Amino acid sequence: MSKESGNASVVYTRHRPAIQRLLITCFVAYTLRTSYTTFRYPARPKQKKDGKERVQIDALFYSRLSRLLKILIPSWNSKEALLLAMHSSFLLLRTVISLYVATLDGRIVSSLVRAQPKQFLLNIAKWMAVAVPATYTNSMLSYVQSKLAIAYRTRLTREVMDLYLGKEGESSQAFYQLANLDDRTSDADQLITLDIQQFSTALAAIYGNTAKPVLDVILYNYQLSRNVGAEGLVLLTVLVQSSAALLRALTPSFGALAAQESQLSGTLRTTHSRILAWAEEIAFLSGETLEKLKLDRAYFSLLTHAAHSLQVRAAHAMLEEGVVKWLWGAVGMCICAIPVFFNLGAGGRGMGERTEGFVTNRRLLLSASDAFGRVLYSYKELSELAGYTARVSQLLDTLHSVRSGHFEKRLSATADTSLFEQRGTVEESDEIEFRDVPIVSPAGEVLVRKLTFHVKPGQHLLIVGPNGCGKSSTFRILGGLWPAYAGLVRKPPPGEFTYIPQRPYLSLGTLRDQVIYPHGKEEMDAKGVTDDDLLSILAHVDLEPIVAREGGWDAARDWSTSLSGGDKQRIAMARLFYHKPKYAILDECTSSVTLEVEKLMFDHVAELGITLLTVSHRPSLWKYHKMILQFDGQGNYIFTELDAEKRLALQEEKQTLEAKLEEVPKMRARLEELKAVARDRVGYNPQQPLELGL
């Protein structure tokens, strides 16, 4: 039996080099397969209990990432592709340097054991020499990775902003539709500013955190197998893979945690921004206590999730370090001791050679263990990247969806869902016409079933009706903010009409910028307009003194808070006179100015030949309009010519009758008092007329 064992040992020793090569080949193939298995997606995406898809590394994640990569790296000769190639070169160079340093480390210790001072100093000199390329490589890796993250963020931000606000030379109202017509994304500012940055940083880091560790595992273990034999490497691989399987099974869904944290951060930011946007109204209504409660709730939700996320990460980090650093380290030390105790391939090596081999092998083993640990850790980073990818992809999907006219809005109980399945026709024309167009709110409430009216140039239209009847909704359809779900809409191109609301928008910039918005100084100069021309425009709104009062045309401040409501409305009318469009939509835009200033402005509108579509309840404006569109608030309307004098006469008669009707209760009360007095008179007959003579 012992003879057979001895023969087997001889046969094994004779064929050991071939067996070693076979084992190493199998190890490389197994490492690549394991790396693929670590990052491949399951066949079916898991579902949450509420029916929503879990954020994880699955087919949907790779599909989303593939689409984003086409945006981030548009071609192989792009800046991003060159940075990626440079990054790969430095990663490979760092691995080569690490292998050399591991061997050099063993030589330094060996020279110490052998007491060879010259050899020791020479090795120290080599150590210092290799520090130059090593330091440069490590610094450049960090630099190139940061540059790559910035390049990714720039490319992706431009793509999103082109969808959000439109490319140069084209208009996009997706920013409005995203906030008002769609419920899928409530924190677009958070997604554009923070989530894109987090996604770009994670994507730039994930390449170095996955490609290099896989390469390191192969190269370090290959070199290690040559030093200690492939048998120990196989044993280590079995242990590592079994413990790695345990770690993967116990790894929580870091992608879902990252996505939820971004969402809660966006909710908190949106709550803060609402306070800034409605600060005056909240202050007047003394609503700070309620708003603080809402902020506390949003922050507490974020805080609770962050605390839970930290606990999960801490527990996983302890388990991971215990396995990767300590368990693998102990087994690795045993494997490094194999050449020392069993003298495999060592022949008659002395103490120095054995020490050098042990230190080198231990350094290689620690590097290989660290690399494999980074492969496992990169799965967690990939999970977080899946969360950021889901958020950014959702933004892109929603932007493309709203740009194509598809909206997902929470509908009211009385919504007519059949209207959302169709679209009307929109044509460009010199005239404005609605033909059988339904006025539908974003929540699906039908305000007017079929609206039909026609306005030609010069036919100023007055629109009246109670609140919520469809006046502003009509303008939103005309401006393209809301879709036309049926019928025909004929309107001029966007550059030929403008909209002036009751609360005008004042941008950041100079006083000049407020009048010429959305033009800049260069566009104003190209148009041939000077500051003196702007001053003459301000004369038509009785606002010339504002230039000297505010410090000149180049004065810059927060105009939305420094100007009164009347000044803002006059600035908006001056903006109308600067642009001189064919049509103007005026929505209660003179409610804060005097009748004298209002007459001055509308007289100048008539001189410029601008056709008006005005929402106002001021009788003083009736004489400036030829047509009237009157809603009754019940889904009905009247479109007819406007006889201002007749309507004013009817208005005066109506006011007179209303005043008399208001006196009726007082007269009835006085009559009852007189009847009570008369009943006290002797001989009073209630059937006879009451005589009040004394």
Automatic annotation (TrEMBL):
Write out the entry's keywords from A to Z.
Answer: ATP-binding, Coiled coil, Hydrolase, Membrane, Nucleotide-binding, Peroxisome, Translocase, Transmembrane, Transmembrane helix, Transport
Q: Where in the cell is it found?
A: Endomembrane system; Peroxisome
Tell me which stretches of the chain form a coiled coil. Answer: 650-677
Task: Report the principal subcellular site.
Answer: membrane
PROSITE patterns, from UniProt? ABC_TRANSPORTER_1, ABC_TRANSPORTER_2
Entry-linked CDD domains: ABCD_peroxisomal_ALDP (cd03223)
InterPro entries documented for this protein:
AAA+_ATPase, ABC1_TM_dom, ABC1_TM_sf, ABC_transporter-like_ATP-bd, ABC_transporter-like_CS, ABC_transporter_sub-D, P-loop_NTPase
Asked if the record carries the keyword Membrane, the reply is yes
Occurrences of domain ABC transporter (ranges): 432-677
| Molecular function terms from GO | ABC-type transporter activity; ATP binding; ATP hydrolysis activity; long-chain fatty acid transmembrane transporter activity
GO CC entries:
endomembrane system; peroxisomal membrane
- Asked whether the keyword ATP-binding is assigned, the reply is yes
Q: Its family?
A: Belongs to the ABC transporter superfamily. ABCD family. Peroxisomal fatty acyl CoA transporter (TC 3.A.1.203) subfamily.
Protein name per its UniProtKB record: ABC transporter domain-containing protein
Q: Which organism is it from?
A: Dacryopinax primogenitus (strain DJM 731)
